[in-house]
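Typical record is below.
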Amino acid sequence: MYDIRLEGVTKKFGDFTAVDNINFTIPKSSVTVLLGPSGCGKTTLMRMIAGLESPTNGKIFFGEHEVTNVPTRRRNIGMVFQYPVIYRGTSVRKNLELPLLSEKLSKAEIDKRVDEVAEILDLKDVLKRFVEELDNGTRQKIAVAREVARQPRIILFDEPITNIDLTSKLELKRSMKELFGRLKQTIVYVTHDQTEAMTLADQIALMQDGVITQSDSPKEIYDKPNSQFAGWFLGNPGMNFVPPEFIKVSGTKITSPLFSQTIDLGSKAASADTFGVRAEGISVSGTEEKGAVQ
């Protein structure tokens, strides 16, 4: 499988910079989630990886091969979009088989791939049904299964569970978590939903205003956000902040008129910027305890 390397990738639409000089590596055989609010550039970045948009500047590599100007059809990628792409007038099984037939695989190999992915995505009971008979959530499962069965080196997901009902969303997220754990392909997954990112990602690339502001494992970004934006965007609720005008920093210690005593962060280096704490880091006590603040 390939890693994906972005070198100085920029995309401009007129005077607007959608993606700004991104240098980033997506490890092979991993799940990397591009996470951020609407308009942050995550879908534009994914479209450049897919070859659906050309960078204004910069280069894109799959492994050691530069693909910046390689057409989409020659990149050996799979894509799953917000709305399910299905072949109408055919059965679920035929939907999964058709791309494999074009690759001239043996019937035994096609049956093996279809049955494997249908098992993981809970589609075995509907393989003989026509796709028009099924709800939107199941149709999206079919779209996911079809791309996985093709076994491309890279699979791109653009907000695949945004437009399905809540029950189907939870079920598909669970199925994809299991599926991603079995796959060897490199996965790039775009979403604005931090719960999806925390659930599915090996690595999160958090985006804001066309740049990647922080990238790490979900736990590291959640526990050690490098900005107020990261602390606020990951978490439900987001991190609580005390602005700098209300805190005084001395070494590892923080004092504030909002606290009854000094807070010592121990070995962690305190900065003179905003102080943040997550809701689960606060406990309420009815009695005065050592180290507590009022």
